[in-house]
Design goal:
- The structure is a homotetramer.
- In chain A, 36% of the residues lie in helices and 25% in strands.
- Chain A is of the alpha/beta class.
- In chain A, the strands form 2 sheets. The first copy, chain A, has a 7-stranded parallel β-sheet with strand order 4-3-2-1-5-6-9, sandwiched between helices. Chain A has a two-stranded antiparallel sheet with strand order 7-8.
- The first copy, chain A, is globular.
- The N and C termini of chain A lie close together (9 Å).
- Chains in contact: A-B, A-C, A-D, B-C, B-D, C-D.
- At the C-D interface, helix 4 and strand 7 of C face helix 4 and strand 7 of D.
- Strand 7 of chain A pairs antiparallel with strand 7 of chain B, so a sheet runs across the interface.
Chain lengths: 155, 155, 155, 155
């Protein structure tokens, strides 16, 4: 099972804590973690996963494998800048979004375009014509986010 | 001046009408229209622009220039699928969003990530932690959308 | 008709002269010139085309429209780095290669993969298992390159 | 260590044999194999690696993880068509090319552009202005290709 954890390269302490716990919970269940490979939420999630011996994949924007955070075991070097966000989303069977800015929003959009479930922890909500799109599924804790991601994962 | 018009390849009659008028208004002002090159909102906007002798650019997802709608004068063949959405957004100095689904949302996200203003006609609204992101600027008519796009365009 | 001119961002004086003349010859025939939008061969070709009032499109690697050379009239901002080479190749109906390094070779490869003819002026030659691939068509002058490009252009 | 094996999705029996042995030799040395994830040389290399318990990554062109061959353990879903060739090249510390057509040539070009060594088994040779580019390093056997790849790998 492959789950992407998305969120900002700048993030709050609380987001860091959430991301690290999400990473741990994924790794405990044998799930492979995918992310954008950089700092912030991405690094915290990888650190959590690595602490449990999990596999971590970083889909990097630049041309240098060394831009990956220290907890990425498999760096994928795209050289495509933030167009790589599409790959972070599409390679997952479920996505967990934590906080995040516009890059995270683009990943949410790509995931939903590909019918990949998105679980949100303190992240974006989206509405069209005043009606909320309920397809970003809210979770109240990292463990709940992981449980929902695994239950809904695209096969 | 370059303005992208984004929206669904499936769209309502009202969205078609709005897009066509946006295209006309842009062309009347000598603005070059960029879009994703396909049907729906994209085609209607190109048709409107072409009716006024405007230049239309279609950033195509596939490998075949002939997938462009009949009103695209300059087809750009990316072969990159919906990763081309990043290009549609980034090549514009302002973006006008009409309706649209998740692909449109990804383009809005890429535009905002690059500080390109987004003007919305009956499109997505986005919130973080319950606070609406006001950076999608609402317009009530095609002419108003075009005026706001030109006033705010990134230099 | 759309023709891409490809070659290095660093180039010799002779390559500069060839590229500028190719640009002029294309524009005289009303052909729209596509290139990677930067310096060297790209800039020289655009300068030649602009001197004849031609239309020039620059498919840029970065996120900033201002990285285009001064003769690009239509900058396409990809933000995808050298993955944009695929777009430079695929958007053309014929490609003219002048000198160039590995980036140019990648564009030749993408053009040939898409059955787009490649005309070479002092550029790469390629062989498989010791047999030269004759599909890079040699020209001995800019005018000949342009004539061959137009004669062979993919419809 | 990460090594990409590149070559055609259609390939000869001899190329299949070479690719499978390259995959085995990589896996025996604990190297992670990257490829384009599809049939032909890619599948044979993955099959060889999998027979030795190796890790295999497939950088897929389409939007469906199920397009990966049966021996890919980690599918990366790009949805970017053959623009994904840049990623196959750049994610490697060394590339082994076996036979191949224009797609393979584009990967060789991207690898060389990024100073990643390319080892060739019965593949392309390239020349500029009549002078062969010796940077595609010839190997006479799969084991020799793997040894050279590891010796020269970019750090």
């Amino acid at each position: 099972m492959f789950v992407s954890v998305i969120g900002g390269s700048n993030c709050s302490e609380e987001e860091t804590r959430l991301a690290e716990e999400v990473g741990r919970e994924l790794a405990k269940r044998g799930v492979i973690l995918i992310c954008g490979g950089l700092e912030g939420v991405m690094e915290a999630a990888c650190r959590g996963a690595a602490s449990q011996g999990g596999t971590t994949i970083g889909i990097l924007p630049g041309n240098d494998r060394h831009e990956a955070n220290a907890y990425v075991k498999i760096p994928i070097v795209t050289g495509m800048g933030y167009a790589r966000n599409a790959i972070v989303a599409k390679s997952a069977q479920a996505v967990i979004a934590i906080g995040g800015s516009y890059g995270t929003l683009s990943e949410i959009a790509y995931a939903r375009q590909n019918d990949i479930p998105v679980i949100g922890l303190d992240t974006w909500s989206i509405s069209r014509l005043g009606v909320e799109d309920k397809s970003i599924i809210t979770a109240n804790s990292p463990a709940e986010a992981v449980e929902k991601a695994l239950a809904l994962a695209k096969r």
